[in-house]
DNA sequence: TATCATATGTTATAGCATAACAGGTCAAGC
DNA sequence: GCTTGACCTGTTATGCTATAACATATGATA
């Protein structure tokens, strides 16, 4: 029931991450380039499976289930069992190159690798699109609430469900 | 892999929701009383299964997996198949009497039913405790970020992972 | 009392995720 | 060179989470 099964209007998967048309080849290249400059220093080892996994996420430009990624990897000669995909995805998430979208049981490439960001995700229930936005103020507000009860925050997940600009007003 | 399997220190499940000892019978009663006043008006129909499900969540005072709730229900003569638990839990969530904690694939009773609140959850990785806090400022910050890209937020999930006061400083 | 909406229960199955083990690669140090 | 250890990849097997589809019951209403 991730993001790829039933009520998937023709637009799904397109215009997703940005809710707007854009130079996707460019934004994908940007991310890869940034990752390239990060890898050596930050102790990130982009092995073939990991790199390919990241590329697959960037190509689809939306949230993908682990098994969907696995299918792609297997078709390209990598292992065909779940741990192959989960390990690569977990590694990317662990190192800030991808995010896990819990509401969708899915994963998406990070659009701002390297920036120490606290992303907020917007999931459109109309087109299944996904947008990632930096949200330092949100993080600050959460920290404040945590401080009030003496809790120390290590990781934060903020996901919203609603309608993107394109899907509003059309009963979607 | 919810919150009840392996590294579960003896304290788990205790002192959970509040990260502090408290009059649990009291807080449980409070919630039930508030629910009672809500039910008639708000179109909430607390059938036996639903009521019992809510009570079970309140008793354990922590996040519970659906199958864990199901075991309890089955032992008390209710249906023994997954949909029984999921339907009751979904209903409670839908009507604001419980929350789904996605990071744990689990559910927890709402501690502030009726208040139109936007809760933030704090999950302690030391003792698996769970705290719910109102966080209007967080909601506001998220709305602001959403507005910037024209997204309209319908539901919001904010979960954090970290250490509760009791687990800090003891290498937990 | 017939009808519709809602609720409960069932069987069966789909979808997500990890444990545990085996083999391979590569660099550090003897 | 060779051994050792860290890390990566791959496998088999299994477990946990969740829902679809169908059957029965109950209660309000026309």
Major beta sheet, strand line-up of chain A: 4-3-5
CATH topology of chain A: Arc Repressor Mutant, subunit A
User: If interface size is counted as residues with C-beta under 8 Å from the partner's C-beta, which chains form the largest one?
Assistant: A-B, 37 and 37 residues
CATH architecture of chain A: Orthogonal Bundle
CATH class wording of chain A: Mainly Alpha
Radius of gyration of chain A: 17 Å
- Unreliable runs of chain A: 1-16
How many alpha or pi helices of chain A? 5
User: What oligomeric state do the depicted chains represent?
Assistant: homodimer
Span between termini of chain A = 18 Å
Walk me through this protein's architecture.
The structure is a homodimer of 172-residue chains. The first copy, chain A, is α+β, with helices and mostly antiparallel strands. Chain A has a single domain (24-167), classed as Arc Repressor Mutant, subunit A, CATH 1.10.10.10. Helix content of chain A is 37%, strand content 18%. The first copy, chain A, is built from five helices and five strands, in the order ααααββββαβ. Chain A has helices at 24-38, 48-60, 66-75, 82-94, 136-148; strands at 98-101, 106-109, 119-124, 130-134, 152-163. In chain A, the strands form two sheets. Chain A has a three-stranded mixed β-sheet with strand order 4-3-5, covered by helices on one side. Chain A has a two-stranded antiparallel sheet with strand order 1-2. In chain A, a hairpin with a 5-residue loop joins strand 3 (119-124) and strand 4. In chain A, helix 2 crosses helix 4 (82-94) and helix 3 (66-75) packs across helix 4. Chain A is globular and about 50 Å long. Mean pLDDT of chain A is 85; it is low at 1-16. The A-B interface holds A 19, 102-103, 120, 122, 124-125, 131, 133, 135, 137-138, 140-142, 144-146, 148-165, 168 and B 19, 102-103, 120, 122, 124-125, 131, 133, 135, 137-138, 140-142, 144-146, 148-165, 168. Strand 5 of chain A pairs antiparallel with strand 5 of chain B, so a sheet runs across the interface. The first copy, chain A, binds a DNA duplex (30 and 30 nucleotides) through helix 4.
